[in-house]
Amino acid sequence: MGDATLLLSNRGSESHHAKYRLVHVVRTHRGADDRAYRCVFQEEDTQGMVGISVSKDLMVMAGEALKSNIMTMGPIVLPVSEQLLFLLSLIAQKILNLKLKPYIPDFKNAFEHFCIHAGGKAVIDELE
């Protein structure tokens, strides 16, 4: 087992201590979808005890939220070469009606590190 200590600060004087710098943040809100809203829900049971109910839709909804975040983040962080390859693939499919597999951008060209939550394997499996 490992552990980590993290200090978040918005003070400019602390910036020289930082090992990493957060450049972009993307948030997507899935609450308008009733299945997403109710997939993890705090409620009272028949005995009056407050608890959390977890729906079977949790992995599907988490996968959709992650896919939405990746689609939103792509144009911001991907290099121009990856964006052009994606655009050419899209044009070939939609306009030229070629039966090609869609181009999946290589996000390793945009990020030095990926940090996936330990419980995120099931979400990644759902995306695949």
UniProtKB/TrEMBL annotation:
Alphabetical list of InterPro entries matching this protein: 3-ktacl-CoA_syn, FAE1_typ3_polyketide_synth, Thiolase-like
Domain FAE: 1-94
Record's GO cellular component terms: membrane
An example Gene Ontology biological process: fatty acid biosynthetic process
Domain of life: Eukaryota
GO MF annotations in UniProt: acyltransferase activity, transferring groups other than amino-acyl groups
Keywords: Acyltransferase, Transferase
Record-linked Pfam families: FAE1_CUT1_RppA (PF08392)
Name assigned to this protein: FAE domain-containing protein
